[in-house]
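Checklist before submission:
- one chain only
- standard amino acids only
- sequence pasted in full

Submission:
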Amino acid sequence: MRKHYFFTLCALIVSLVSCNTTPEISNLEPTPAPVEESTPTMIQISPTVIPEVIPTKTPKITASPTNVVETATPVHIELMMSCIEVTAEPPAIYESSGYLVLWGLEQARPVVIDMLTREQIALPDGWDIFDWYISPDEAWIIYEEGIIENHRVIQVRLHLMSPDGEIASTLSFDYGTIAEWGWLDNERLMVFIPHDPTFVLSSLRTINPFTGGQEDIPFDFPDVYRYSPPPIGFRPVSAYDPTLTRLVYAVEKPDGSVGYSLWDIANHDEILFIHAPSWYAPKWSPDGSRFIVVTYVGDSMDTATELVVIDMNGNIEHITDLSTIYPHMAIGEYSWSPDGTRVAFWFSADRWQDTYEELMVLDITTGVITNYCVQGRAGWNNTDAPLWSPDSTQIVIDSYAYGSSDQVIMVDIAQGYALQLTESRDALWWLRTFPDVWASP
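Returned file contents:
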């Protein structure tokens, strides 16, 4: 449900192979602040069709112990139980900061919670969920507008706006020529150009919205996982590192093995293949030096799963060992803390039972895993990835375990308490600042 936020460029996970369809374009008309005698720069970007590269012969990658990992080999870890009761009233030690952006199925327009006062702030008309993203440094907003003629969308425009509402430039695309988009860093956007609609595959184009400069990364990677329609619960998603020198993507080898390939884009070479489920995207660390991914324990897809961390050169570190305690356990969605020292993830003691997932946090430095016993969703209704506060001390999660509707709960791992914030909404982003344009009536 949640759109992954592009704040932290290293945690940026953008789908090369996505099961999501392009969200419906709305004719978005935010009310910008007056522009002082300046005319927005219109940059016409007409993506050229990137030809499909089909190798006449699939490159053969020789399996060797240094570049192929079939399964995870767990190491010993320390598991701590620190169960926290979820309360409706804040404790006396409550303290937080920033602005939490949420949306609900019944409400297309997001609301914002001031985390200092816990006051809910409604956004002005025109700011619906699918149409805008804020740069990692929160200095710029990109929002999408659909241009309609004769009751049909003919063009998509991406407007670059400052937090006070001034439009600096506009990127224009023919409708249907872009699939997904978002911030790569503070100066570039990642725009995905449809490549193979049958399998929902896209090529990557980076665009500087300030200058109009752009660069293409053609879609010419071998053994890309193709399955239409994808199996239920299977999402063959992939992730570029922030420098765009590495790509982790879902593959199916000629022998039928399914997993992830760590690919050297510049040298067009596979660094590593790891046998792993493709339910959750690999996620790069905030500094872009390594990524985490779920792997199987054993040779069967019916076995337990564990987390591993892999650096840009393919070196692997096994960071969980929970299957030695829970043979049928499974790991769900996960996320890095902004400071790169922890990983929050969902844990199920028995993947075949209709039980609630529980929130765990791994300290990368010490190897200690803490189970906070705060529950998410049950069974195959996988809980969204935990959302970290900018200072890496608090986590916001969605849960169905504490009422009849979806609950938004904040877990303070530093002070040891959990607080219900609201219900019937999902958390999207945790901002440090509140854009002035949102204060406009």
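Reviewer check: Confidence is low (pLDDT under 50) at residues 1-74, 230-235.
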